[in-house]
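Good morning C.,

I know you're traveling, so I'll keep this short. The sequence:
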Amino acid sequence: MMNDNASSSRLILEVKQCLLLAVPLAAAQLAQSATGFVDTVMMGWLGSQTIASGGLGAAIFSFFLFITAAIISAVSPLVAEAYGAGKPEEVGKIVQQGLGISLLLGIPITILLWHGGALLVLLGQNADTAALAQTYLRAIAWGFIPGLGFAVLKSFLSALSQPQLVMVTVVLGTLLNIAANYVLMFGKLGLPALGLAGIGWASTLSLWSMFIALAIYILSQRRFAVYKTFQFSSNYSFNQQNRRIFWEIFQVGLPIGGLIAVEAGLFTVVTFIMGQMGTTPLAAHQIALQTASMSFQFALGISLATTVRVGQLAGEQNLQSMRLAGYVGIALGALSMAIAGIIFWLVPKLVVSLYLDIDNPNNQDVVALAVKLLAIAAIFQIVDGVQVTAAGALRGLKDTRIPMLIGIFAYWCVGLLTGYALGIWFGYGAIGLWWGLAIGLASAATVLTFRFSILSSGWKKAVVSRE
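The C-alpha cells, ready to paste straight into the viewer:
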C-alpha cells in the first residue's frame, strides 16, 4: 500500500514538474505561431482567393521560422549550463553568438522570402496565386530577423527561469498584430488600404515589437547586467571561445531543427500539391493545417519540458524517475492533443467560421472540404502529440540523429508516399493526402516511443551492471 501511495505521489509530482516547465515553453512556442494563425484568420475576411494565396505565403514563412528558431533554441540549454556553473561571462557570449547566428541565418532567408513569388511559380503554383502571395511575403520578410532575435532572448530568459515576461510579450504582441491587421488591411486611421500586404506589415510590426520589448526589459534590469548581453566589444574577435560556442549552438540545434524540418517539410510539400489541385483544396487545407498547427504548439511545449526533465534525471542517474518523466511527457502530449481533436470533431464548422463566412454561398465548397479535413486532423492529433513528445524524451537522452532518420522514413517514405498514392493515384484528392499525413505521424509515434522504451531500459541495465 505504501509503495502504491509512493508511486502515485511520484507520478503526481512529475506531472506537476512537467506542466510547470511546459506552460511557459508552450507560450513561447505560441509566440512563433500566433502571428501566422491570426494572419490566416483575417485573410479569410478578404475572401477565398486571399486565404489561399496568403496561406501559402504564411506556410513558407512559418516553415523557415520554425526550423531556424529550433536551431536557435540551443541557446537555452547552453545558457542554463553556463548559468548553473556560475559563468556569467559565458552566458553573455552564448546570447551574443545566438544573435549573430540569427543574422547569419536570417539575411539569406529574408532575401529568399522577398523573391517568394518566383519561387512559388518554379514549384508549380498558379501565377496569380504566387503574385498575390508575394505581396504578403515581401511585407512579412522584414520581420524574419527580429523573429529569430526574439527566439534567442526568449531562450535566454527561459534558461534563467524568467519566462513570465515572455508570456506577457506574446499576448501583447498578438493583440498588436490583430489591431494592426485591421488598420492596415482596410485602411483605417487615415492609412491606405493595403489588403493582404497589410497583414504582412502588421506581422512585421508585431515581431519587431516583441523583440524590442524583451531587449529593453533585459537592458533595464540590473540583475541581467552581469551577463553583458548587448555589450559587443569594439575589438571583438572570433576567438577560440567564441568559435567553440558558435559551433556548439549548431551541434546542439541542428538535429532539433532537422527533425522539425523533416515534419514541416512534409506539410509544406503537401501544401504545394494542394496548390496544384486548385484554390478550393488549397484554401481548405490551409484552414485545417493552421488550426492543427496551433494545437500542436501545446504538445511541442510539453515536448521541450520533457527534454529538460529526462535530461536532468538522466544526469542524476535517477533512472526510474527518468523513465517516468518520459512517459508522463508522452501521455500529457497525447492528452493535450486529444482535447484539441475532440473540438475538431464536435464543432468543425465553428472552427472553420473563424476563417471564412460559412453562410456565404461562394465559400461552401471550401467549408465542406475543410470540415472533412478537420475530421481527419481530429484523428491524428493524438499520434502527433505522442511523436513530438517521444522525440523530446529522446533528446533528453541526447539521442537526436536516429530520431531524425526515423522522421525521414516515417514522414516522407510512409506519410508522403501513402498520401500521394491515396490522393493522386487513387483519386481521393485532399482527403487522401491528409490520410497519408495521419499514417506517417502514427508510424513515427510508434517507432519513437518504442525507441525511448528500449534506450531508457538500456540506461537502467548499464547502471545496474556497473554497480
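Safe travels,
E.
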